Amino acid sequence: MSNPYHFLSVPAKKAFDVTLSTPIKNFIKATFGDKEDYSASIDGFNSLRAEALLRSNYRDDCSKLFRYYDQLHAIEYKLPITENQIRIYFKWQDALVSGGGLFGGKQKTNGSWKLAYEKACVLFNIGHAYSELALAQNLSIDEQMKAALRYFQLSSGVFSFLKDYVNANSLSDLSVDFEPAVLA
Which stretches make up the BRO1 domain (predicted)? Predict the structure, then answer.
């Protein structure tokens, strides 16, 4: 029996490799000295980012994506990741602009020194992951149809939250996929 339903998933934003370790270690050393060695934790955070973001498929396992977002949220008010203090430039590629993509045009790369930008991009990919999980369901089976519905609702909730988050952190100018109409 063929599937009469046709759904689209939200494409993922592509993260570029960023070194988190060196700037954070330098800041901690300059601020607090060498009293304790946080190198293993910081290197683990750097590895978590790479494992969570530098891949193209979240359908099989998105737990690292959630863990990385949780870690970003935990350090948000503990480490001043800004252009003037802990200098980490987060670079991402727009999800909705590509050569043969949804809106056509040329692939656009954006970046920011703001940790809020990194969080917003990760949230975008969490919304993408939920839409991918929804599409992976067999819609001819009732339980999987219900799971697909739930995943699409979760994806929608992420983008609804992201719309407010992007607005509150003045990020809408950084990426076409962060414009309120697109997120809505």
Answer: 6-184
